[in-house]
Amino acid sequence: MPRYARSEREALADLLLDLGPEAPTINDGWTTRDLAAHLIVRERRPDAAGGILLPPLRRYGEAVRRRIAARPYPQLVAQVRRPPVWSPLSNPLTDEFVNAMEFFIHHEDVRRARSGWLPRDLPAGLQAVLWKRAALLARVALRRFPADLLVQAPGFGEVTVGRGGDRLRLVGAPGELTLFLSGRQRVARVQVDGPAAPAERLRSASLGL
Q1: In whole angstroms, how far apart are CA 93 and each of 9, 44, 96, 99, 128?
Q2: What is the DSSP letter of 20?
Q3: What is the pLDDT of residues 106-119, one digit of tens each?
Q4: Three-class SS state of 167
Q5: Kind and range of the H or E element at 170?
Q6: What would the pLDDT profile of 54-112 be if each residue is shown by its tens digit?
Q7: In the predicted model, is pLDDT for residue 149 greater than 70?
Q8: DSSP 8-state code for residue 157
Q9: pLDDT tens digit string along 12-22?
Q10: Distance between CA atoms of residues 145 and 149, nearest Å
Q11: CA–CA gap between residue 184 and residue 207 (Å, rounded)
Q12: Which is nearest to 128 in space by CA: 198, 178, 70?
């Protein structure tokens, strides 16, 4: 069985080492060092990882992340590459389900911050995994969007979301939809069809979990 979480993790770690600690990412204000520290907090510091999603914990989580980011960069990348088996997010039972999308997204966060990037030709199996995640993201992130939005990944599936109203269509490959629906609209190569105003609202919406 393919292990896409592992392959995306390894590719990201290789790229982090190749680019060094000060390379940009598409995450505003974050360098490769910042991104590596974020991933370490997520998997190794459950006391601080809640700050990734919960505003009351964000200040503490960010303080922990900054302290970790100050460590030697090769150490950070080594910890990204080899996650702890005790972590609820990266143990052998959960790794593929939890991390395939996560590490695909963060791999692209680094790739697409460089000039001349092109979308990768992803394996069909990884695209199928990403479509399942993208469909879930669409149902959660766009459940209250004020339109009747059809999200389509040709060859993989489609889902209709939103509260109704203007009809929109969001079309793209599973990886591109995953990036778009996780809040990375500006680097996602998708097609949005429909009236201009709601289409622009979709492109600028705060998306993601």
Answers
A1: 16, 16, 8, 11, 20
A2: -
A3: 999 999 999 999 99
A4: strand
A5: strand 167-171
A6: 777 788 888 999 999 999 999 999 999 999 999 988 888 999 999 999 999 999 999 99
A7: yes
A8: E
A9: 999 999 999 99
A10: 8
A11: 8
A12: 178
Give the closest residue to 3 by CA, choosing from 90, 121, 105. Answer: 90
> Helices (DSSP H) in the chain: which residue ranges?
4-19, 32-44, 46-49, 58-69, 73-81, 95-111, 124-141, 174-181, 196-204
SS3 category, 35: helix
Which residues have CB under 8 Å from 206's CB, separation 6+?
183
Cα distance between residue 120 and residue 173, in whole Å: 11
pTM for this entry: 0.93
State the Cα–Cα distance between residues 54 and 62, nearest whole angstrom: 12
Q: How many CA atoms lie within 13 A of 58 on its CB side?
A: 5
Q: Do 44 and 64 form a contact (C-beta atoms < 8 A)?
A: no
Burial status of residue 82 (CB atoms within 10 A of its CB: 0-12, 13-18, 19 or more): exposed
Measured between its terminal Cα atoms, the distance across the chain in Å is 28
